[in-house]
Amino acid sequence: MQTTDSLPARSTKLSGHNALITGASQGMGRCIAEHFIAAGANVVICARDEALLEKTGSELRAANPNSKILTKACDVSSEDEVSGLVNFALMELGSIEVLVNNAGVYGPMGSTETVSLPEWKRALEINLYGVLIPSRLLIPHFKKSGRGKIVVLSGGGATNPLPNVSAYAASKAAVVRLMETLAEELRPFRIDVNAIAPGALATRLVDEVLAAGPDKVGKTFYEKNQKWKTEGGTPLHLGAALAVYLASAESDGITGKLISAQWDPWNRLSQYRDELSQSDIYCLRRIVPEDRGKKFS
């Protein structure tokens, strides 16, 4: 399983920052935690699997003895558990400047009319409510502090249909629109909210697709995942580096955007801050015929 693919360079980009990162025991979340720590941040990481979380925490502390790295098991779809997590983080660190909503699952795989409805709902609870609840609980703290950063991990289902993985696709599209809405609500309070499209990652989710098989997920999607498994997907460090950028002062004022770690020139976006604030670039929007050079009568 891919956990991290490039050791992050040490910097002071997040020096003095405290971050809460969900779903950080493995894969993309762990890589983001490694990059945040290397950039000078203290972190609280959470995941549902307490044993794996503690193993990850021990490894991160051993590699970074001068950093404050805390762990707490949490189901991000549970308001009570997330409340306990936020209280723990604030008590231990004193403040939180950055929230990274990374926790997510694929959910049931198969045609929408045949998959388990309880499993479909459960995927929505983790992927959508797991962004909403931590954000809701930390927004009052960010407002009181006069600043804050919320970073959301999107996915392939946000911008394109994803047949046979409909719970994932629907939840990720909803997450991006939630991000855009929160960004507008929180713009007056100097709280930036953005989403990352990390690319096709060779994480545990690929193994889940391969285990499901082509009959459930479709031949095309199955073959894509086979390729990512054998050849490697998008490097995890691209998304992690973008998360550091969006958490840092360098990105102040950039908000309400879905940014591709692989394809967008995100390390130069601060040059276009004013233009971005007045446009729908990097947003989800309806396409009309005129956008494609056509006119329907």
List its traits.
297 residues, alpha/beta, Rossmann fold, 7-stranded parallel beta sheet, 10 helices, globular
Description:
The chain starts with 17 loop residues before the first strand and ends in a 20-residue tail after the last helix. Helix 3 (79-93) packs parallel to helix 4 (117-145) and helix 6 packs across helix 8 (219-231). The radius of gyration is 19 Å and the shape is globular. Helix 2 links the parallel strand 2 and strand 3. It has 297 residues and is of the alpha/beta class. It has a 7-stranded parallel beta sheet with strand order 3-2-1-4-5-6-7, with helices on both faces. The protein has helices at 27-38, 50-63, 79-93, 117-145, 166-186, 204-212, 214-217, 219-231, 236-247, 273-277, and strands at residues 18-21, 42-47, 69-73, 98-101, 148-153, 191-197, 258-260.
**Rg, alpha carbons:** 19 Å
- Residue-averaged pLDDT, rounded? 92
Looking at how many chains there are and whether they match, the oligomeric state comes to single chain
Distance between the termini: 53 Å
Q: Largest sheet, if any?
A: 7 strands, parallel
Low-confidence stretches: none
Supply the CATH class. Answer: Alpha Beta
Overall structural class, as computed from helix and strand content, comes to: alpha/beta
Using the alpha-carbon principal axes, give the shape. globular
- Could you say what the CATH topology is called? Rossmann fold
CATH homology superfamily: NAD(P)-binding Rossmann-like Domain
Series of H and E elements: EHEHEHEHEHEHHHHEH
Q: How many distinct helices?
A: 10
